[in-house]
Amino acid sequence: MTSAAVPEYPWLLPGALASPAKAARRTTRDWLVDTLCFLLAVGWLLLAVDDARSPQPDIALNAGPAWLVPADLVVGVLACGALWFRRRWPVGLAVAMLPLTLGSVTAALAVLIILFTVVVHRPFPVAAALAGANLVTSMVINQLRPDPSMSFWLAMIWTAVIFGLVMAWGMFVRARRQLVLSLHDRAERAEAEQQLRVAQARQLERTRIAREMHDVLAHRISLLSLHAGALEFRPDAPPEEIARAAGVIRGSAHSVLQDLREVIGVLRTDGDGAESRVPDRPQPTLADVPALIEECRAAGMRVTLSDEVAVPETVPAAVGRSAYRIVQEGLTNARKHAAGTTVAVGLAGGPGDGLTVEVRNRWPVSDVPGPAIPGTGTGLIGIAERVNLAGGRLEHGRDDSGDFRLAAWLPWPA
């Protein structure tokens, strides 16, 4: 159910039960119901008039003073006409009808219909008060125009039963409409929450992709900058080295553009269907760390690897991917802030003990020649978030020996 369906049911609009005057304009269903109520009230009026002409009337229209008969007809006609306004002013009409119906028989059904409207659209105390007031006027009617077929108290009992049935029916209709309104609101709220969950899931997925792209692009662009810097400071290098460096730059630039094309394609996609999603590329694992280090060595970095991981083939994929990203971020930071220093990468751990990842490099003693590689300053923040989500611990900063140390512990279930 959507909000577009609400105009078809104006009595379900918020506040429509408490204030019909604020509801939408009368619908086809409302016109049909109001017409039926009007015809029933007019039918009762005609029945009372026809019964008064019979030799043995069943309805006490002719009882009482002679002037009551034409007055009763006038009141009955007015009550029937007032039914067309009962949705807008139910309480006002019910109060206005009280003195007019003290001696009216022809307006009885119209009064019951107006009372039913009050019960449906107004709080119970208001409806009960008006029902009690109408019961009092009924006592006056039964005194002035007694029913020829039953006693006064029997007539009052039947009147009370009729008023009770009208009250019960109106309360049932009101409760049912409130239930439908509650279910409608609940369905709208559930739909909105579902849309919110979808939007949050999409945002989380985009954030994850952006985080992965940050790690990958920062690594590739820093390598590209390192090779370009070597060409800049060694213009007299052998042609073979220049050609190899140019090939690495071209390959890195191509990879960067491909990564950017994929992430931008995903971030521009608003749909969540399978046809609109870009398939994820194979994610790196712990086994890809040596290849990462060889790539950095090929770019001119001095990197050492100490691998003391027991049964590395059993490392969970998520743990291995996090370890790879930590090493990648540590190497990227070393290229940016400590170019020319030796970087030591250490991996250790086993099932049940967790996986320890450490990237250490000497603190640079002088400024890096040439322009510094720009950074976003969010690399370590992203790594810290990744480690926290994995349930691990992260430490980074200068240690007692003066080295910069990036160390993380990741849980590795036994």
Compact summary:
The protein is an alpha+beta fold and 414 residues long. It has helices at residues 28-52, 68-82, 90-100, 108-121, 124-144, 152-233, 239-267, 289-298, 317-337, 379-390; strands at 302-309, 342-350, 354-361, 393-398, 404-410.
Verbal overview:
This is histidine kinase. One of its GO terms (molecular function) is protein dimerization activity. Its EC number is 2.7.13.3. Residues 1-23 and 271-279 have low confidence and may be disordered. Among the domains are: 3-149, no CATH class; 285-414, Heat Shock Protein 90 (2-Layer Sandwich). Strands 1-2-3-5-4 form a 5-stranded mixed β-sheet, with helices on one face. The protein has 10 helices and 5 strands. 58% of the residues lie in helices and 9% in strands.
List key phrases describing it.
414 residues; alpha+beta; Heat Shock Protein 90; 5-stranded mixed sheet; 10 helices; 9% strand; rod-shaped
**CA-CA gap between termini:** 49 Å
Strand content: 5-15%
Oligomer description: single chain
Which term fits the overall shape?
A: rod-shaped
In round numbers, the mean pLDDT is: 76
Strand tally, please? 5
How are the strands ordered across the major sheet? 1-2-3-5-4
Helix-strand topology string: HHHHHHHHEHEEHEE
Q: What are the SSEs and their pairings?
A:
Elements: H1 28-52, H2 68-82, H3 90-100, H4 108-121, H5 124-144, H6 152-233, H7 239-267, H8 289-298, E1 302-309, H9 317-337, E2 342-350, E3 354-361, H10 379-390, E4 393-398, E5 404-410
Parallel strand pairs: 1-2
Antiparallel strand pairs: 2-3, 3-5, 4-5
InterPro entries: HATPase_C_sf (IPR036890), Sensor_HK_TwoCompSys (IPR050482), Sig_transdc_His_kin_sub3_dim/P (IPR011712)
Protein name: histidine kinase
Organism: Micromonospora eburnea
